[in-house]
Design a protein that fits this description.
mainly alpha; 5 helices; Multidrug-efflux Transporter Regulator, Chain: A, Domain 2
């Protein structure tokens, strides 16, 4: 049985968030996201539409980067690096849980 979070993820993965939706959910301007995409710090989903689309994982990543930039005055590259490390830690924890080691 799917949890509500898994259902939201599945819906988002089918159509994805638009640039404006992602910006609204993360309380940033669309230009902020566009700049981070252009700098290679965010990768939109492969283009199936005429506009960028973003997944639920992008939503989490953008929120992390925004928080790091605002709360710690981190430069975008450093905030993205920390977000990368947090994503890797989350993945390792999931793997440990699946293996029954956590």
């Amino acid at each position: 049985m799917q949890t509500p979070e898994n259902l939201i993820d599945a819906v988002l993965e089918d159509s994805g968030l638009t640039l404006q939706q992602l910006a609204t959910l993360c309380a940033v301007e669309p230009e902020w996201i566009a700049r981070h995409v252009e700098e290679g710090l965010l990768d939109p989903l492969p283009q199936q539409h005429t506009e960028w689309r973003f997944s639920s994982a992008h939503l989490v990543r953008v929120r992390r980067i925004v928080s790091l930039e605002r709360n710690f005055e981190a430069v975008p590259e450093l905030a993205a690096l920390v977000a990368d490390m947090q994503e890797e830690i989350d993945e390792l924890r999931r793997r440990l849980r699946r293996a029954g080691l956590e």
